[in-house]
Write a structure and sequence with these properties.
The protein is mainly β. 7% of the residues lie in helices and 47% in strands. The protein has 5 helices and 45 strands. The strands form 10 sheets. It has a 6-stranded antiparallel β-sheet with strand order 1-2-33-32-31-30, with no helix packed on it. Strands 3, 4, 5, 6 and 7 form a 5-stranded antiparallel β-sheet that branches. Strands 16, 17, 18, 19 and 20 form a 5-stranded antiparallel β-sheet that branches.
Length: 533
Amino acid sequence: MFSAVCHAVAANYSFTNIVDDADGAFSSFSTVASVNASGMVAFSANGSGGTVGIYKGNGSSTNAMFQGSQASYTLPFSPVINDGGAVAYLRSDLGGNNNVIYDSGLGPTVVASGGGAFINVNQPMLNDGGTVSFGASTPGPDSGFNLYTWSGGVTTARYYSSAESTFIGLSTVASVNNNGVLGFNGTLGPPESQVNGLFFGTGGAHTTITLANGGTGFSFLSSFPTINKSGVVLFHATSTNGKTGIYSGNGGPLTTYVDTTSPYASIHANTGFSDGGTIAFYASTDSLFDYGPDGIFIGPNPTADRVISIGDELFPGLFVTSLNYGGAINEHGQIAFNYTVENLAHTVTRHGIALATPDSSAPLLNSSFAQMVTVGGGLATIGGLQATFDTVNDPGRFSADFFRPTNSADLALRIGETALNEVDFGLATPSYQVWQLEFSGTFSDAALVFHYDDAGLLADESQLVIRHYTGGQWTVPNQTIDTVNNTITLVANSFSPFILSNVPEPSSAALLALGGVVLLRRQSSRDRRRAKQ
């Protein structure tokens, strides 16, 4: 492989080369559809030695999850990877048998066999808890296409399609979020008055996102909607006036992110939707002269919202000639995509997979005077942050990720099990508000201003505090709160997780209502240990 990390022409992104065909080990790659919170990318590829396989890599190493012969297997559909590093994929042999495979790293498990209890098994999806969703039919004269989930060896039918059920047709792929909610395309009956729509639910009852035709404004809806952990469904659709666009909803009014009203001439169906709310899509522009070439974008402005486009210098001396985007994006806004690059003399051509990482701010240089940077939208945005560094001793890059985990398992993914085990304080809001701060250089002190969300507070706002995990414990540094602008200001000389909490201990009822049983048990166990001492 060539250069691992490079800054391309596209503003505010750096690029990591995950894998390519430079050394001859691989001959072609599937469209990438998954990258986890650690920047690990799952992909499938044909090897130049006649192999086909499922792999995961981060630019430093590549590990095979499955390898077989092209004489026995076809190139699989794109695998999916969760934050724990587990992978789910569709393994297809030349005999026409499709098997859904789950591999947590301990070896493959067959979730659904196309030659067993199921037929017509399709591409799986996967959440962070290890739940696999997939579509398949069962054999027999009364067979219908159904949506299933698998977890811990147990398969559960979620939605059925038949003349007797609510749905007379279902999409082959259903996304699944961390709460086990499926987002899917379905057709409602009866056959003589059928209508296609997008829905979500956990089985049985469902919520309608939107329907096609019948005055909804859409003539065609994507077969592959995406649902994030907040239960918001993102989808690609064609309106009755012929325009295509990207929309979202959760059962109420829809949100339009972007459509083919100028400056975009076309928007491809594969879209990415992060838990942080960032969307990514491949699009063509109305005018090469005004807006530039085709590329991957994250918003309505092809200039300000461009990630990478045709003609950019992706790696030193190598320029993009084609791009392919399958919807791979993680909660940090990192985007994985397929590329083809060439040098100016057209004597070198490379095909591969790259990861685009958004820059949180400009690099900080050595300086004897204070330097201020803003990230996450700054103080005008919930979760945004302003940092003023007193002295930077060694140059580096500052970053700050804001998270809203809703339970202790999600919180552990953000702050680590060690820090989680020391959490014995109450929540300030119905979900955690966590900032993960990092600086690649060294500094003396930094004044930090956090913009918190004051919706649904569980305590008096004046009692809110930011806690800092340092030295193996959660501390409460000196700080001031501005309840008008919803900011908290403090000074820190080290970075690690920061979390919004309240000063008083919450009641047991409040903890239970929030799913905070884990926190309550930890506090109780500490009290018992203290009593024994």
